[in-house]
Amino acid sequence: MPTQMSHRRSAAGESAAAVRSSRAARRPRVGMVLLGTLIAAAFVLPLWWTVASALRPQRETFATISPVSLWTLVPRDLTLGNFTRLFDTDFAQAMLNSAIVTLGTLIGGLAICAAAAFALAVLQFPGRAVFFAVMVVSFLIPFDAIAIPLMSIFRGAGLENSYLALILPGIGNGFAVFLLRGFFLGIPSELTEAARMDGLGWWGVFWRIYLPLSRPALIGAGLILFVFQWQAYLWPLLIAPDPEMKVAPVAIAQFAGQQGVDFGAIFAGATMTLLVPLLVLLFFQRYFTQSVSASGVKG
């Protein structure tokens, strides 16, 4: 009997210790969930307020901010008047221009960035490390710092007010090249050596081996190019002043003029422009995560 009682006490002690250990392990997880929820709310609430402001009459846009209440985030009177007024202007043409410029940037940018990344990751040539270092430094320079001199070059070449002028600065994205190069470095070199021994040229290696294996990285690089071009404001404002060529961010900014500010149209335009990248990013986010994690395998 004493032996059985000691065994029971031991088992009870182990069970209690396991429960305490489980509770101790659960506390950090609960804390991380709460922290993640707060961070998510900090990002979501401004977007929610933008959409809510697009769906309420303009007179209520700032009337519900102070004091903060439920009506700050929920419109009292739902209306589509802001969107109707928005599309009474040339905003639809501006959205179409943004779509054309972004699509052109995606096609041209992926072709150039993937080829550059392949050369920097696979080909052996003198000065490769220097070229890569210059490329890394290039995407650390703010585009605003070079926008004015670049505009002078484009105007001198007769490219003002053209889709080509809007597209060209976005196709050579250093971060996209950096991302693709890191992914290409993770592809086994034995595949390249076997293909070369079978008589495949470098173009064939790039086209038939590296590109088919790099779909997550290509999608990740494409998302970078997409976001960079879709939200571009300064460059389109400088190089395409023609009303027929303006893009969505420029069109939204022009709702604030000398006659006053149409906040309802601004929020409606912001809602329309943010929905496109939001849906694209939600659909392709797992590919972007894979590409970023894989690009860190080798450097």
Automatic annotation (TrEMBL):
All copies of domain ABC transmembrane type-1, residue ranges:
95-284
- Specify the protein's topology with respect to the membrane: Multi-pass membrane protein
As for family, the record states:
Belongs to the binding-protein-dependent transport system permease family.
Query: What are the record keywords, sorted?
Result: Cell membrane, Membrane, Transmembrane, Transmembrane helix, Transport
GO cellular component terms?
Answer: plasma membrane
One example of a Gene Ontology biological process annotation: transmembrane transport
Q: What is this protein called?
A: Carbohydrate ABC transporter permease
The protein's location, in the record's own words, is:
Cell membrane
Q: Name where it mostly resides.
A: membrane
Q: Which Pfam families does the annotation name?
A: BPD_transp_1
User: What residue ranges are annotated as transmembrane?
Assistant: 30-49, 99-123, 130-151, 163-184, 205-228, 263-284
